[in-house]
Specification:
Largest sheet: 7 strands, parallel
Order of helices and strands: HEHEHEHEHEHEHHHE
CATH topology: Rossmann fold
CATH architecture: 3-Layer(aba) Sandwich
Radius of gyration: 18 Å
Bound molecules: NADP nicotinamide-adenine-dinucleotide phosphate
Distance between the termini: 40 Å
Helix content: 40-55%
Oligomer: single chain
Number of domains: 1
Structural class: alpha/beta
Amino acid sequence: MRITVDLFSLEGKNIAITGASSGFGHHFAGVLAGAGASVVLGARRTEKIADRVNEINNTGARAVGLSLDVRDEQSCQVFLDQAEEAFGPVDVLINNAGVEAGAKTYTMIEEEDWDAVFDTNLKSVWRLSKMYTQAVVDGGRAQGNIINIASITAYRTIKGQFPYAVSKAALVKATEILALEAARFGIRVNALAPGYILTDVSRLLLESERSDTFVKGIPMRRYGEFDDLNGPLLLLASDASHYMTGSVVVVDGGHLCSEL
Ligand SMILES: NC(=O)c1ccc[n+]([C@@H]2O[C@H](COP(=O)([O-])OP(=O)(O)OC[C@H]3O[C@@H](n4cnc5c(N)ncnc54)[C@H](OP(=O)(O)O)[C@@H]3O)[C@@H](O)[C@H]2O)c1
């Protein structure tokens, strides 16, 4: 038992999470803090962040909340700087912030849909990873860890998810390229690719009339729950994955193996 606890422990680690005001990021912050990490939560809705930070601090763990717009270069730099001021060097950066463009097929998508989705889901990952790498190098640190939140939409083909799915497919490739190029700085880069879990991002699809068909296509016959991600998250965030980089960990109840 002891080896399990030690292997996945996040004691002493400082973890910065983007998009932590709701959904996955909100949940991840509690899981990571529960495993011993100090957590820095960033998003635009600062009142939601403040509530979550209070909840976590009330458990005796350590959390701070920061205003963050991942589409804004200066906001990203301030976020990383203030994350370091709060708890010291950032050991793990989780690029979780994400948006979708609504249930639109390609004839309905507008220019601004591409910009919003690609800026948030893809370009910000490059931007924050570049800034984080600079901090690791400037700090003379031997290692770093980046986790990108991809999606099984990177691999599946679904109507009405054009920019979103393409952004996630590109994020898988971005994870591989970052892993290749960041290894020389001692930085590992992996991705988590969840299946469908009910949040604001997935609500349109999971509450549509197509929902029953989707569930039938999942071999485990249910959508995911937040807790289904805990183990894979702790694996990637902890030193248990110290020889993993460029990996995409799929957590989807077998959805990618589906015949449907
Ligand atoms: N739910 C699923 O089934 C599913 C499956 C696979 C992958 N994912 C991915 O999981 C990640 C989290 O999504 P979710 O499902 O948890 O949905 P969510 O509850 O809507 O969370 C999205 C988060 O991203 C933040 N965000 C959006 N734009 C931002 C910006 N410009 N700057 C900073 N933060 C921003 C939002 O915060 P603010 O609005 O407060 O800024 C929010 O905290 C996304 O990358 C999503 O693609 C979700």
